[in-house]
Structures are given as structure tokens and as C-alpha cells.
User: What shape does this take?
Amino acid sequence: MMPLLPGATIGVLGGGQLGRMMALAARRMGYRVVVLDPSARCPTAPVADGVVVGALDDLAAAKHLAAQVDVITLDTEHVPADLLEALEPIAPVRPGAKVLRTIQDRLVQKQFLDALGLPQATWAPADDLEAALAKVGRPAILKVRRAGYDGKGQARVEPGVDPAAALATLRGEPAVAEALVRFAREVSVVLARGMGGEIRIYPIAENVHRRHVLHTTRAPAPMPATQRARAEGIAVTIAEALEHVGVLAVEMFELPDGQLLVNELAPRTRNSGHYTYGACATSQFEQHVRAVCGLPLGDPRALTGAVMVNLIGDLWRAGPPAWAAVLARPEARLHLYGKDAPAPGRKMGHVLLLDDDTDRALATAEQLIAQLEPT
Ligand SMILES: Nc1ncnc2c1ncn2[C@@H]1O[C@H](COP(=O)(O)OP(=O)(O)OP(=O)(O)O)[C@@H](O)[C@H]1O
Ligand SMILES: [Mg+2]
Assistant: This one.
């Protein structure tokens, strides 16, 4: 396969902030970018060479995009695998339909991980709720099989409450039940796998969620080398079994005894890898472009320690936050995604703090968020 060199056109399915940062990286390298998104005003649109407006399951719109590009990739796993398959004769799709089919349905993803012998929280299909809860115990978490993100499509079943009420909040969507994990912390491994099978792994990130939405990422996560090797080994096993091409993120729970459980997979760039854009020699966005274009992969090394803190729509409730406090700090990089509707819980941007002392950077992150809160 000949690599697609700068000048080629990359089609991106989904025009959110991941597509936007990918497009910025691609264009910096001299690629053209065309994006498919339901909104002409999506975050990727202002930085793309072209926009096709259409839903992510609109085959005609996706074919219209495919006809204009040399390779197709995505910024979300919620694109029907059948649609990707239909595009494959028009332009190469990376990652391909097979990877998406495995990842986009939580049940299939969990079966895949089980088949690899990788540790996960105890789980069961929620079709027979009583049987599922008998297996996973309580508290349990019900998760819709498809289209969940930022904790949407999840419901907790506490001991002693009617589980049917929790299930009803999922509006009849097929779901899986999982045991609630009492983890010590959450970590993620972001890696890239190239067309020839080569793999580059970023420093492991430690993630804190608030109300099910990622709040902060610290990288590198303080972690003994043997534990790091185990986490990396799990992620590499998954990337190879999927024959993935592009960036892959593997979320894990670390238990108090050090055991690692795989939580979920993302076949794309991920929020917990945003720190790479500013802290690493090659950002996850450039790396994804390199992988899907068949280029050699770049150096994933961190040039500095870093903390990323998300800017959630709630901060906008009295209008745009006053950025002066962020802008005044030389170690801070402000990223805003150009979203015009700041809804509560919506990811609007992030701040990256470059500091080898990541404990200090975590404290700074909290201080900055407090300063950005409307008074
Ligand atoms: N089994 C569990 N036990 C304990 N906490 C959990 C469990 N499952 C999920 N969580 C918490 O909820 C968060 C979101 O869950 P999960 O990653 O499954 O959902 P998501 O909506 O796909 O999130 P993302 O925004 O990462 O795509 C997790 O990062 C974790 O903090
Ligand atoms: Mg998650």
C-alpha cells in the first residue's frame, strides 16, 4: 500500500472537537479535510476544507463524502458499521467496519474482551434483569449497548430498590448490567497502531470523572514500571486482536490491590489523550492522521508532565467565562472547541497545564476552575 502523502484528502465522519483537532493537525501537515456532520456549524466545520451536512447514518451523504476523499476516518464510534462497509469500495475506511462492529455495541465489546481473557467488571446482558443482577450483584450499573457517552444511557441499581425503575430510565434500549467497581483510580492507555502493525504507546494517563464526565487527566500517571507494562500489554493485545489502524484508547479501572479491569474501548482519539496535544512530541491527532494515511508513526514521548482539565458548559451559565486567569499563566494552554450552545455537562474546551510537577498542576487546575465559575 502506498502511503497517502500530504496533499491527499481525509474524510472525517463526525465533526465534534475530536474531528476539529484532527483537522487542525492534518491541515498543518498539508492534508485536505472534508467532514460529515449533521450540523453545518459543527466544531470541525470552520477548520475543514469542506463540509457535507448529513446524519452519521445517512448513506447518501456519506457516499457523497467518500467520493471526494482518499481515506475515511471517524471522530466517533457511533457510525453504523454497515454504513462503513458500504463505503469501503469507494475509499479505504480506517479503522474499518470490523473494528467498529466489535466496539460500538457494549455487549459485543465485552464478549470480545472475554474471548481475549482480559479482566473486566462482572457483567451480563440485561435482557433478563433478575438473572443479570443475580450474577453481578448490587450496586450494579446498567448501560445501554449502543450510543452511550459521558455516562449518558446509564442507570445505577442500588440494593433494596426496584431495578425495573432504573431499567425504565433507559427507555427500552437493550442494555448490559455491570458490577459497580470500587476502583482506586481510573487510568487510560492511548496508543496508535499503523498500517504495518507498528504500535506507539503514549504515557499512561490518570483520569478523574465528575458526574460521569471526565474532569482531569494527569500524565504521566505515577505508576511503577511493572504495572505500566501490564497496562500497556493489555492495550497492545486489544489493538492487535482488532487489527486496529489509528489511535485506540483503552480505559481501565485500577483496583486497590493493583488489579486492572478494562472498562471500555474507543477506536479513535480520546479526551484523556488531549494532553498529548501540547505535551508530547506527536499529538494523538497527528498520530491518528499518520496511521490512517499509512505514514510512519511519530514519537509519542512526553516532553513535559501535564494536567488537562475539561471546561464544561456549566461554566457558561452567566455567559462566557472570564479567561484572564487562564491566559495569565504561562504554563496554561486554552483550547476552545467553537461550540455556540453551552449546555450543562457539554464539553466546551479544556485547559492544558504544562508542568513536570503534576501534583502542583492538579492544584492549579482546581484553582483555575474555581476562578472561572460565575460569581
Ligand atoms: N462498573 C463501574 N463501576 C464503577 N464506576 C463505573 C463503572 N462503569 C462506569 N463507571 C464510571 O462512569 C464513567 C463513565 O462510564 P463509561 O466509561 O462506561 O461510559 P461512557 O458514557 O461511555 O463514557 P465516555 O465518556 O468515557 O465515553 C467511568 O469512567 C467511571 O468513572
Ligand atoms: Mg468511558
